[in-house]
């Protein structure tokens, strides 16, 4: 390893270092305006902001407000955070406002850039969503950037995991809301399954900025987001009893089978029979429902057969694709059907969560009328962004020229020599004190490297991107630029936190002060409730506190005399003791320079913070200089990733804001990427070239690696494109359903909807008779079953199997009337309970919504089965996507029929419990 020539070293540089003219002109405007804003007081600035809002109200035109709004935001950022947007950041903001992706390198200040288009678009009062990759970042950005918005008179919201419905709703009502992609998408899915209008949390979509946009729209867009239904009780017992009961039910007397739609309904007699057996008054009781179990058991008996629809393999039901005969081992039928069949076959019953709703990120984010994103690495995926999301990627020049040094890859013969070389390399770098960041592709590999470093007695921090430790992870990453620090991290860990050479003092001080304040708070709380017997407790806590402060003192070296006296007053302030831990954290994070805090403990905390920062700064500047002289951060890649973008992400962790920095990748011939996509010949050739212990640098290998990456990237892209194309079809259906659903949810009465359902079902059945799919007798039976009473059809001649013998329209009218009578009778029945009309309206709505949910859920299940089947079936010349489209459409129309039938059926049977 030692003695390798670093030839062909590449200094990373931006191709375009100038701002394009179309942006420069606007930027000049903004710079001009800035001068006039300088003289205004804070209040006058806010008035300017309100003026813009009013102007938008009148003109409905944002474009004419861009420069004024940007200039205002810049000025308020300077006055609140002390940060003035650079011109390149203004360009970033302009790009974001024009529905594009801004590629800005790590550390260029994307968080601040987003405030420009966010404030501008907040003028519309229609809501702006800023999407981040984790809760920690959403919180961090909302708290810090919130100060700018507040200054301008906008309010901000923040969504975090675990928040209640009410909190979410409130936060989404804000002008600007920070939220993760995960929470946002789930809120959308939940909104579209809710039964109460007041539970809806999301307003209509307006404008969205996605931070780390490639991570969300590409890396995470490989699979759909699924809202699982956990409300269903899967009591195993009920499946078994229901299966037993079917032995006492007669076909056509107690139940009716609709083979075409694969549906079963109980007749009135059937219901009575079941109620008698299980001794219940109401099969439909939502608190103890029996009906789904009975129906599924009947379906299992009469519609699903062993060796046709499924086979039994190792005591499990395995679905057989009807069309190809292939088995589908991992699939299960939804909504309890699978369990019902297991019960029928007397196998063990396995519960499972069901998909209640699902969507892909692709289709989700496309719902925003105005969408934009930012990332350090977007250009390499620009085709995908353009084709799927219609987003152009624009590269923003860096504020300072980049000085990062990307060293050529080193190629080893096998894993063994590669990892040894990495450990050795880390060891030799660490002797100089230069900070090291080592990226690995998996947690296992991180652990393995850690073992190797142990052998060299090196100390390191190890990190992975588990959601539960994002905060800790950000803290560690923030310190990764300190002298002597070694950080091993999986590639995604700590995204969004920038690495400052010499360490991030704000972070460090915030954390230390937070710990001390919490400790003091707890100690004082204890003191309040203390009795003599517990005095020893106080002593130990106080001791601990003093220790901590001493430790802090060694970090800060010398803080002012006043520091300790303020600390002492603070921790005896009784209002301070009552603060929650989160409150303390918030006060620490809001380094508010403008609004002078009116509350004394806030004042004190801010003093402590600033005092510490001030006294540490000088020391920190020295540290920063030392690390710069050592060459900045050294980034080590331990294998090339599947995509160049991810490699660039890792490289981009160093060389921030014009800092020095180096990056180097170690690869081996048996790395996955080279092994699978490197090409046989190249492999063979290289194998002969590499000596046993030392690496080579070869342009041929680099070429081969680049090709391999391209192949993998294209493949992954094809997969996502495929997912998108298929989901697009489902998406059209989804928007129809969600639209219909919203109408049902929001209109004061859905009477007309129910009447339309009635007409549709009548027409549908008559159509089926005409097509000879059912005969008239069957139709009458179906109606009798639906209405729950016998029909006395006098107007039709005896031989009514022939439709020509009576008037089509007459028949239709007859059934309309019967339907209407049944409906009216039901309403009357409810009127017995006083305010019957209102109760019935609610009941009607609930039944309809519930059925929309379950039928949609079943539809999703069928669609995913279809999706799988389509992939396997040979279609000859036909395009599977077209076939999928056709069949998905058929399923969709069947779904509507089922929805109507079930809704009416339950409506006519409903009683008040
Ligand atoms: P990115 O998301 O682009 O990687 P961040 O938004 O995390 O970068 O910002 C990196 C650092 O740069 C932060 O510490 C931020 O305070 C600082 N910064 C951003 N914009 C400016 C500015 N205009 N002037 C000074 N510092 C800035
Ligand atoms: Mg960022």
Automatic annotation (TrEMBL):
Compartment list: Membrane; Plastid, Chloroplast stroma; Plastid, Chloroplast thylakoid membrane
Highest taxon of the lineage: Eukaryota
GO biological process, one term: protein targeting
Xref: Pfam families: P-loop_SecA (PF21090), SecA_DEAD (PF07517), SecA_PP_bind (PF01043), SecA_SW (PF07516)
UniProt EC number: 7.4.2.8
Protein name: Protein translocase subunit SecA
GO cellular component, one term: chloroplast thylakoid membrane
SUPFAM superfamilies, alphabetized: Helical scaffold and wing domains of SecA, P-loop containing nucleoside triphosphate hydrolases, Pre-protein crosslinking domain of SecA
Mode of membrane association: Peripheral membrane protein
Binding site for ATP: 89, 107-111, 498
NCBIfam families to which the protein is assigned, alphabetical: secA
Family matches, as InterPro entries: Helicase_ATP-bd, P-loop_NTPase, SecA, SecA_CS, SecA_DEAD, SecA_motor_DEAD, SecA_preprotein_X-link_dom, SecA_SF2_C
Top EC class for this record: translocase
Originating species: Ulnaria acus
CDD domains hit by this protein: DEXDc_SecA (cd17928), SF2_C_secA (cd18803)
Span of domain Helicase ATP-binding: 91-249
Family statement: Belongs to the SecA family.
Summary of the function given for this chain in its UniProt record: Has a central role in coupling the hydrolysis of ATP to the transfer of proteins across the thylakoid membrane.
GO molecular function: ATP binding; protein-exporting ATPase activity
UniProt keyword terms in alphabetical order: ATP-binding, Chloroplast, Membrane, Nucleotide-binding, Plastid, Protein transport, Thylakoid, Translocase, Translocation, Transport
Reaction it catalyzes: ATP + H2O + cellular proteinSide 1 = ADP + phosphate + cellular proteinSide 2
Domain (SecA family profile): residue spans on this chain: 5-698
């Amino acid at each position: 390893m030692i003695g390798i020539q670093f030839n062909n070293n590449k200094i990373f540089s931006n191709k375009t270092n100038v701002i394009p003219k179309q942006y420069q002109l606007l930027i000049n405007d903004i710079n001009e305006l800035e001068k006039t804003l300088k003289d205004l007081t804070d209040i006058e600035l806010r008035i300017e902001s309100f003026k813009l809002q009013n102007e938008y109200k009148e003109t409905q035109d944002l474009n004419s407000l861009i420069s004024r709004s940007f200039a205002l935001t810049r000025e308020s950022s300077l006055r609140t955070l002390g940060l003035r947007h650079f011109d390149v950041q203004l360009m970033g903001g302009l790009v974001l406002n024009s529905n594009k992706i801004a590629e800005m390198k790590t550390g260029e200040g994307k968080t601040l850039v987003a405030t420009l288009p966010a404030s501008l678009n907040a003028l519309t009062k229609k809501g702006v969503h800023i999407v981040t990759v984790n809760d920690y970042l959403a919180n961090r950005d909302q708290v810090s950037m919130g100060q700018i918005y507040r200054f301008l008179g906008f309010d901000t919201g923040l969504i975090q995991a675990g928040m209640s419905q009410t909190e979410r709703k409130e936060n989404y009502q804000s002008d600007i809301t920070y939220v993760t992609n995960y929470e946002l998408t789930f809120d959308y899915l939940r909104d579209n399954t809710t039964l109460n209008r007041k539970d809806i949390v999301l307003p209509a979509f307006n404008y969205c900025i996605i931070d780390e946009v490639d991570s969300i729209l590409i890396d995470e867009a490989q699979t759909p987001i699924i809202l699982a239904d956990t409300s269903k009780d899967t009591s195993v017992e009920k499946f078994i009893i229901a299966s037993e009961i079917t032995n006492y039910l007669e076909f056509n007397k107690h139940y009716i089978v609709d083979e075409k739609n694969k549906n079963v309904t109980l007749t009135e007699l059937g219901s009575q029979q079941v109620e008698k057996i299980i001794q219940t008054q109401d099969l439909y009781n939502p608190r103890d429902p029996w009906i789904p179990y009975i129906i599924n058991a009947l379906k299992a008996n009469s519609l699903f057969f062993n060796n046709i629809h499924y086979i039994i393999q190792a005591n499990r039901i395995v679905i057989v694709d009807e069309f190809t005969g292939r088995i589908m081992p991992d699939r299960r039928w939804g909504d309890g059907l699978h369990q019902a069949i297991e019960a029928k076959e007397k196998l063990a019953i396995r519960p499972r969560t069901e998909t209640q709703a699902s969507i892909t990120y692709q289709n989700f984010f496309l719902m925003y009328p105005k969408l934009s994103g930012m990332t350090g690495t977007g250009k390499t995926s620009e085709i995908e962004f353009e084709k799927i999301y219609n987003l152009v990627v624009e590269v923003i020049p860096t504020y300072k020229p980049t000085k990062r040094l990307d060293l050529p890859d080193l190629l080893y013969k096998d894993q063994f020599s590669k990892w040894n070389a990495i450990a050795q390399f880390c060891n030799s770098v660490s002797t100089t004190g230069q900070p090291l960041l080592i990226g690995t592709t998996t947690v296992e590999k991180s652990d393995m490297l850690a073992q190797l470093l142990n052998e060299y007695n090196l100390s390191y921090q190890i990190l992975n991107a588990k959601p539960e430790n994002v905060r800790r992870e950000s803290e560690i990453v923030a310190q990764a630029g300190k002298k002597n620090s070694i950080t091993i991290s999986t590639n995604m860990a700590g995204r969004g936190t920038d690495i400052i050479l010499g360490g991030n003092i704000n972070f460090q001080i915030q954390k230390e002060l937070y710990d001390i304040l919490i400790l003091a708070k707890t100690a004082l709380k204890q003191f309040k409730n203390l009795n003599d017997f517990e005095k020893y407790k106080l002593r130990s806590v106080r001791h601990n506190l003093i220790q901590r402060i001493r430790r802090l003192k060694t970090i800060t070296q010398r803080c002012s005399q006043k520091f300790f006296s303020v600390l002492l007053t603070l921790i005896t302030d009784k209002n301070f003791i009552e603060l929650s831990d989160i409150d303390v954290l918030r006060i620490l994070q809001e380094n508010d320079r403008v609004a002078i805090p009116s509350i004394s403990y806030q004042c004190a905390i801010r003093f402590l913070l600033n005092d510490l920062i001030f006294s540490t700064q000088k020391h920190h500047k020295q540290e920063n200089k030392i690390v710069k002289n050592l060459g900045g951060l050294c980034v080590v890649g331990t294998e090339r990733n599947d995509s160049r973008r991810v490699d660039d992400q890792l490289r981009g962790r160093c060389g921030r804001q014009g800092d020095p920095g180096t990056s180097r990748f170690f690869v081996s011939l048996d790395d996955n990427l080279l092994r699978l996509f490197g090409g046989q010949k190249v492999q063979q050739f290289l194998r002969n070239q590499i000596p046993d212990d030392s690496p080579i640098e070869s342009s041929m290998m680099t070429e081969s690696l680049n090709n391999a990456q391209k192949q993998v990237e294209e493949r992954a892209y094809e997969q996502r494109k495929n997912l998108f194309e298929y989901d697009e079809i489902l998406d059209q259906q989804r928007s129809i359903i969600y639209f219909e659903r919203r109408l049902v949810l929001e209109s004061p009465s859905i009477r007309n909807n129910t009447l339309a359902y009635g007409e549709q079902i009548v027409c549908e059945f008559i159509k089926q008779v005409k097509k000879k799919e059912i005969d008239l007798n069957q139709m009458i039976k179906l109606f009798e079953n639906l209405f729950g009473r016998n029909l006395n059809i006098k107007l039709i001649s005896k031989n009514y199997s022939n439709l020509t013998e009576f008037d089509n329209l007459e028949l239709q009218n007859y059934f309309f009337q019967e339907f209407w009578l049944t409906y009216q009778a039901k309403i009357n029945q409810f009127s017995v309970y006083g305010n019957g009309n209102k109760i019935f309206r609610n009941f009607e709505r609930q039944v309809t919504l519930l059925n929309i949910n379950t039928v949609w859920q079943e539809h999703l299940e069928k669609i995913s089965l279809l999706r799988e089947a389509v992939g396997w079936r040979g279609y000859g010349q036909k395009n599977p996507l077209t076939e999928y489209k056709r069949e998905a459409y058929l399923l969709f129309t069947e779904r509507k029929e089922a929805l109507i039938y079930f809704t009416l059926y339950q409506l006519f049977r409903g009683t008040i419990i």
